[in-house]
Design a protein that fits this description.
The complex is a heterodimer of chains A (325) and B (367). Chain A is α/β, with parallel strands linked by helices and 325 residues long. Helix content of chain A is 32%, strand content 22%. In chain A, strands 6-7-8-3-9-10-12-11 form an 8-stranded mixed β-sheet, sandwiched between helices. Chain A has a 4-stranded antiparallel β-sheet with strand order 2-1-4-5. In chain A, a hairpin with a 2-residue loop joins β9 and β10. Chain B is α/β, with parallel strands linked by helices and 367 residues long. Chain B is built from 13 helices and 12 strands. Chain B has an 8-stranded mixed β-sheet with strand order 6-7-8-3-9-10-12-11, with helices on both faces. A 4-stranded antiparallel β-sheet of chain B has the order 2-1-4-5. In chain B, α4 crosses α5, α4 runs parallel beside α7 and α7 runs parallel beside α8. Chain B is elongated. Classes of the chains: A alpha/beta (325), B alpha/beta (367). Chains A and B meet through α7, α8, α9, α10 and α11 of A and α8, α9, α10 and α11 of B.
Chain lengths: 325, 367
Amino acid sequence: MAEEIRNDAPLVEVRDLKQYFDVRTGAFKSKPLKAVDGVSFDINRGETLGLVGESGCGKTTVGRALLHLYKPTGGTFKFDGQLVTDKNIGSMRRQMQMVFQDPYSSLNPRMTVEDIIGEPLDIHHLYKSRSERHDKIMALMQLVELNAEHATRYAHEFSGGQRQRIGIARALAVNPKFIVCDEPVSALDVSIQAQVINMFEDLQAILGVTYLFIAHDLLVVHHISKRIAVMYLGKLVEIADADELNSDPVHPYTQSLLSAVPIPDPKTARAAKRIILQGDVPSPLNMPSGCPFRTRCRFATDQCAAEMPELKDRGSEHMVACWNK
Amino acid sequence: MAITDTDVNSKIQEEKVEEKVRENEEQAILRVENLHTSFFTDSGEVRAVNGVSFNLPKGKVLGVVGESGSGKSVTAYSIMQILADTGRVVEGKILYKGENILDYSEKKMNSFRGEKCSIIFQDPMTSLNPTFTIGWQLREAIQLHTDYKTKEEANKRAVELLKMVGITEPERRMKQYPFEYSGGMRQRVMIAMALACEPDILIADEPTTALDVTIQAQILELMKELQKEMGMAIILVTHDLGVIASMCDEIIVMYGGRVCERGTADDIFYRPCHEYTKGLLRSIPDVKNMKEKLVPIGGSPINMLSLPKGCAFCPRCEKALKVCLENAPDEMEMPDGHYASCWLNVKKEYEEEINAENQKTAGKEHA
């Protein structure tokens, strides 16, 4: 089969993805807000790519644009060698699903758990009889360690961690190859976070799904991802192996981001030298010329203001976009 | 002879300990004793805080850590007396310099808030009034609580404060509205407002939870600097163990409205003695356990409406004993001097005692 031939090709190939939003700045004027501006990356089969960055950097938009929850402004997205377009996205969504951040607002309060998990099955006509549908739902609930007796309950009767499990079961219902996880553990308590992270890892081991794991918590992302991509103001600034990125960050933004993470270990925390960034992230409506990070960068030169550096391989697939490093 | 010597020594030591306790109490600017706070709702009494006690020494940072629903914020709000209408302190004392603030009149309480004790909240987006300028809001706090009574004086002081918290061009910034500020800037303004009257105590309720990591680092650094400068005591309420590790002199771990464990950062992180603390530390990703699986705490956080009879953590505890179901454990001093409330420690001590005795008798028999 064609699928098997292409097995070492990456499952997800994103090239120069652009997502602009028109923001009205006056009665007849509008300005493009470049939420994602030329992002390219690959994700291999069964791999987890972590996508990190601060709020407003466009990481969620990348995930949503891939699934055409927004209409991408430009760029291409090849899934399993097939170009994803507006026309085929409906059927493509059988292979790509999403888990959302907020387990409270992403589940319909008027639907029972059974119907929430069953909805994707309905949409894609994945069963022949009512009993098959029921069996599939029960199997999914078991997979995410939910009590099957709770199938007729409503979402509000569950705790945050359990709701996130419902969201995961819904995403898994169509047996997808690729799941975009948009901050799936940010809204959960620490002790529950670990349960859900373990579940993601187990599911990957069992089902071989590929994840794009979007989050702002670097320790969580490092734990779950094989590779990590760092975003700043709509652009990727660094992609590398998770361990390498953590031990040897190259881009000045990655360096300061990592040094800012509070480490839950008093001795390391006391010894840690923080690189405190000055100022705030510039508004994406008023993007600085050239490299977007130059306004807060310690190493900024004239060249940074003139031109955006491209992602360049520094060996062993460690890609960095910086003029000075 | 030898025996009497050790006796004398231990007596001297006891006295020393007592003296130290007394000293601590004198130094403590705020003492909370056996605080119980409940909310009276339609579905019954919610006991949010069940017997929390702690001392806040002058100029120290006390960290209160716990999951949502552990009662950490309610403890903070009880101190400020800003509980929701249905909430009430039902038992216990809150002593500020020896005076119980629960006996304060509303007027006295108003001057206590702000002048002696200030609070910054989690969400800087909603804790500022969107319809007034930053300058107006700062001036209000200053004119209410300090001696800068005229508008000019208050203005001058407000500019000083903004400068202190690292806001550039404070004169121009004074005339702007909150929506023109970023999240980190707003939290800076909140800090400036809280410090306007140089309070003795600053309560920070999840001050950086809504902020990005790089901004969080800025704000934590600022809080540390200001504390060094002004010498106030800080109660830092948070769920983030990373923030706690780098900021606090002393830490309280809360679960189900009770204190599980208290001690220095090193005590809590390197020698945890309560099963909940241990579980919490195991469940967070750390640089050291990246390749291992996380060990989550099973079950879900407790429902405060139906608190278990015994230890609150018992339903989720893997090592729970029979006694845990029935009785809540008392606080016990650990060998290294920090405190934990867990029956397992009592059991361990008891077993050690028996072991020691057995060895003694065995030794005697042998002789």
